[in-house]
Every structure is written in structure tokens, then in C-alpha cells.
Amino acid sequence: MAEVGQQHPIGIYLKIWVLLFILSGFSYMVDILHLEGLLRWSLILLFMFLKAGLIVAVFMHMMWERLALVYTILLPPLCLLVLVGLMAVEADYTFLTREVFFFAGD
Amino acid sequence: MAQDISSTAKGGGHGAIIPDWAGDRQVFQVPWGKGMMWIFLLSDTFIFSCFLTAYMTVRMSATDPWPNASEVFALTIFGQHLPLILIAIMTFVLITSSGTMAMAVNFAYRKDKRKTAIMLLLTIVLGASFVGMQAFEWTKLIEEGVRPWGNPMGAAQFGASFFMITGFHGLHVSAGVIYLAVIARKVLKGDYDRSGRYQNVEIAGLYWHFVDLVWVFIFAFFYLW
């Protein structure tokens, strides 16, 4: 088991490397071109998830690991979506009460 | 089998704890060091996610306008005003270091000591220069009056989020540089030729790629959003 390790042709790493460079360039272009609103946010998220996916799948070898390990590592972070959802609702409420109490007197 | 059930029915007593847990079953078919590194990285994922979620919360609830990162991190180089340029360079440096790290892992499994060490040293140099640029960025912002409790550009929560998130990430990069230096030394000394544990380079690589992975999220949410 240990003597096999994760060995893959060097070409795949170089290709992913170039791809990450291009995707980072695209992310930076989003800012340079002053894209705004929904287009900006969706492009940022798209390039972010593509880059993260490539790093985890290829550089960290997840696509070649057994599913027992893949699920153990990749499923628990999905709980974070609940946290993000709850905190977004909470932040909205805080913003609302601040608006009411800070500026109601003006 | 029948014996198992009867011992369960009786509760088994203290003597049953060890045989119950010692099922002699291996779940993860990887060297233990690699399994533990993945578990550590999972816990680190939660730490960074908590920071980023906290940042989202304070940014959404701030009534003052949030400072425009594009302008805050702009630099004037040779008379050219370039928005976010330092962060872009830092991003490319970190991605390049991830590429050299992947090469190091590849050469390690080919048992090519010299090339592994060269790639590790390149990764270390790139990582150290990333930390250097971050120190420059911090100095610049502190000189401009950015503090954890306020700043001249807008919402007071900007400084706390910035120092906490980039500081914790920079700490990870610095620790990674030291970690890789230790591994590079072991490679050069021939430790892994004797023990055969070249997977230690891959385990260090997992940590390094994770640091790059976290930067992808920080770059998107903190600098570009």
C-alpha cells in the first residue's frame, strides 16, 4: 500500500497549473473590467469553485483516493452552509435594527 | 456469533471495551500520517470558514460603506495606477508555489532526491516571498491608518476582518515554509531512502496546497467581492 503512493504523469500537473493561472487571470479581470452586480458575483464564485476544485481534485489527489476518504473529508464542510445561512439572516436583522435605531431620529 | 450476542446482553463489563473497539478494521487505505493530515485540514477548513462567515456577518450588518478593496490595495508602479496589483501578484506567486510543490511530490515518488529538494526549495522561496509581500501590505495599510477598531476609508469592521483573516493565513504560510524546510532537509539527508517514507513529501504537499486553497477563497471573498 505505502510503496505505491500517488504517482501520476507530470504533464497533468503542468496542465492544471496553467489552467489555475488562466482562471486567476480571469478573476483579476473581473476587477479590472469593473464588472458589477450579479455578473460580478457569479463570475467570482464560478472561478473560485473551479480553482478550488482543481486544487483539491488534482494537486491534493482527491480524484484518485478511495471514496471512504473522499466522503469523510468533503461532506462535513457542507454543514457550513447552514452556518452561513443562519448568519446571513442574523446579519440582515442586525442591519435592519441598526438602520432603525441609528437613523430613525434624523 | 451467539457468544457475541450473549456478552452484549450482559453488558460485557469493562473487559469488553477493548475487544469491542479493537475490531481490527482499517477504514482508510492510506498511510496514517496522510489520514491525520486530512483530518487536520478538515478542522482547519472549519476555522477559516468561521473567519470568513464572521467577515460576511459584519460586512452585511455594517451601516457605513465597506472600503473598496480594489482601491485600498491599489499601487502606483512607474506612474501607473494599478488596482489590486499586489494581491494579484501574491495570488500568482502562491499558485506557482503550488505547482512546484506538486512537482516535488512527483519527483519524491520517483525517488529523485536532488530534483525533489530543488522543487521544495523553490516552493519555500515562493512561500517566503508571499509572506514578505503580505508584510509590505500590512505596513502600507497600518501607515494609512487602518486599525482593527477603525479606518479612514469606511466601515470600522474592515480592519478587524482584514488583520484576522490575512494574519491567520500568513501564519499558515509561515508555518508551511518551516515545515517544508524540515522536509527538504530530510530529503537531502537521505532519511526517506532509508525509511522508504517518501509519502511524507506528499503529506507536506497536502498542507501546502491547502494553504493555496484557502487563499483562493480569501481572494474571492475579501479582495474581489
Describe this structure in words.
The complex is a heterodimer of chains A (106) and B (225). Chain A is an all-alpha fold and 106 residues long. In chain A, 75% of the residues lie in helices and 0% in strands. Chain A has helices at residues 10-32, 37-59, 67-74, 79-103. The relative contact order of chain A is 0.07. Chain B is mainly alpha-helical and 225 residues long. Chain B has helices at residues 2-9, 17-21, 32-61, 69-72, 85-109, 113-143, 157-189, 191-195, 199-224; strands spanning 75-77, 80-82. In chain B, helix 3 runs antiparallel to helix 7 and helix 5 (85-109) packs antiparallel against helix 9. The relative contact order of chain B is 0.14. Classes of the chains: A mainly alpha (106), B mainly alpha (225). The interface between A and B is large, with 56 and 59 residues.
List its salient traits.
heterodimer, A: 75% helix, flat, B: 225 residues, mainly alpha, 9 helices, 74% helix
Annotate the secondary structure layout.
The complex is a heterodimer of chains A (106) and B (225).
Chain A: H1 10-32, H2 37-59, H3 67-74, H4 79-103
Chain B: H1 2-9, H2 17-21, H3 32-61, H4 69-72, E1 75-77, E2 80-82, H5 85-109, H6 113-143, H7 157-189, H8 191-195, H9 199-224
Antiparallel strand pairs in B: 1-2
Helix pairs in contact in B: 3-7, 3-9, 5-6, 5-9, 6-7, 7-9
User: How much is the average pLDDT of chain B?
Assistant: 90
Q: Tell me the Rg of chain A in angstroms.
A: 21 Å
Characterize the main sheet of chain B: 2 strands, antiparallel
Strand content of chain A: under 5%
- Structural class by sheet pairing and helices of chain B: mainly alpha
Amount of beta strand of chain B: under 5%
Task: Tell me the quaternary state.
Answer: heterodimer
Compact description:
The complex is a heterodimer of chains A (106) and B (225). Chain A is an all-alpha fold.
